[in-house]
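Field log, afternoon session.

UNIT: design team B
ACTIVITY: writing a sequence onto a fixed backbone
BACKBONE:
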């Protein structure tokens, strides 16, 4: 029963992200599905204790709420617990965003908290 509910939740996340984009907690299966489907995706390596991350959060939410970014999925990865993901993407600092288009990394940024800089970064997933 729990597995069926988990699968249903994953399907709902995928359906939502496929249609409109979204912000969602990082999930490896969702990430791989988005990459294999050539969907635009960004991974935000966030830590609750990080002041840069706390500054980025409202800016990212504001940007991704704009209609221009509805096709983009922003996956928020816990910097402290997603160590395998950090290693695979060579991320050494919290506040790092890694952007993918057509299944490949196209841009990354660490520590940027400006609306202009983050907007430009996320647009690289859509071009």
């Amino acid at each position: 029963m729990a597995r069926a509910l988990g699968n249903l939740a994953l399907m709902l996340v995928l359906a939502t992200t496929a249609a409109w984009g979204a912000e969602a907690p990082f999930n490896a299966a969702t990430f791989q599905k988005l990459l294999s489907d050539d969907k635009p995706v960004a991974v935000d390596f966030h830590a609750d204790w990080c002041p840069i991350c706390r500054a980025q959060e409202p800016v990212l939410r504001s940007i991704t709420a704009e209609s221009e970014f509805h096709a983009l999925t922003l996956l928020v990865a816990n910097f402290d617990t997603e160590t395998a993901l950090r290693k695979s993407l060579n991320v050494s600092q919290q506040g790092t965003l890694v952007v993918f288009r057509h299944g490949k990394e196209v841009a990354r940024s660490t520590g940027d908290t400006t609306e202009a800089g983050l907007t430009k970064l996320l647009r690289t997933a859509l071009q």
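LOG NOTE: The beta strands are 22-25, 41-46, 73-78, 96-101, 104-110.
NEXT ACTIVITY: expression trials, pending approval
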